């Protein structure tokens, strides 16, 4: 056991601190009060240093996680989530248009609340109306071949791109949808608004996990 009168001895430093801290009365009865005070002061200094290091490490960890979070959000916002191909041009050539989330939202977004055959209770969907997407690409007629990430595809007639019709939803209940949650994009009709949207054909056209659309005649 170390000598209490030499509280800074490296080999007994922490034992002395713990001993003095938890048996202060014994220390003062056995040794000079100034010795105990010095040991207690050393203990307080080490605790303060350790606490300072802990808080700095925690702060650095929080800052790193915050940076990582916003970097991921930024990358997600700039990631292509929809590709539209087969778009006719004045020259007769066909072009491709890619959209990230921000570009889709810039077309104009709407929200509606409806039930669906695949979810429980009312759900609020937010997305770009199919009619606005079609208009922004100057599409007049034809068929939209909508394809999911697993290559499942459905044909949606251009005539379905009506005002107050389907939307390409990117939010469900104000949250982005993962692939497991039928995202990142889901063509959703306002099923509760009209019986014409509650048919097997419409249900089959309500493709989720959408990531590309091809325009065809």
UniProtKB/TrEMBL annotation:
Highest taxon, organism lineage: Bacteria
Transmembrane segments: 58-77
Keywords attached to this entry: Membrane, Transmembrane, Transmembrane helix
Domain Oxidoreductase molybdopterin-binding positions: 114-190
UniProt xrefs under SUPFAM superfamilies: Oxidoreductase molybdopterin-binding domain (SSF56524)
Pfam family of the protein (one): Oxidored_molyb
Protein name, as recorded: Oxidoreductase molybdopterin-binding domain-containing protein
